[in-house]
Amino acid sequence: MATVKVKQVRSAINRDKSQKATLVALGLKKLNQVVEHESTPQIEGMIRKVLHLVEVEK
Questions:
Q1: Under a CB-based contact definition with an 8 Å cutoff, are residues 55 and 2 in contact?
Q2: What gap in Å lies between CA 53 and CA 44, rounded to an integer?
Q3: Cβ(6)–Cβ(28) under 8 Å?
Q4: According to the model, what pLDDT value does residue 1 have?
Q5: Does the record carry Ribonucleoprotein as a key word (predicted)?
Q6: Are 7 and 41 in contact (CB under 8 A)?
Q7: What average pLDDT score do residues 31-54 get?
């Protein structure tokens, strides 16, 4: 299955609790941190929820 690299580029300060929780669930804790995940519908939905805070490379 394809992988997706997700990089946090904007801070989670002043964001909704659900957006902060989504970043943590993706494994992102710091700015400019990159994590790699399998491209599943669940991960794609999580990325879509915080798309304004992250960069995605497929």
A1: no
A2: 14
A3: yes
A4: 77
A5: yes
A6: no
A7: 97
Token readout for 57 is: 């490379």
- pLDDT tens figures, 6-31: 999 999 999 999 999 999 999 999 99
| Partner residues linked to 54 by β-bridges | 8
| CATH number of the domain located at residue range(s) 3-57 in this protein | 3.30.1390.20
Secondary structure of the chain in the HEC alphabet?
A: CCEEEEEECCCCCCCCHHHHHHHHHHCCCCCCCEEEEECCHHHHHHHHHCHHHEEEEC
The position carrying tokens 């994590």 is 35
Q: Which residues pair with 4 in a beta bridge?
A: 37
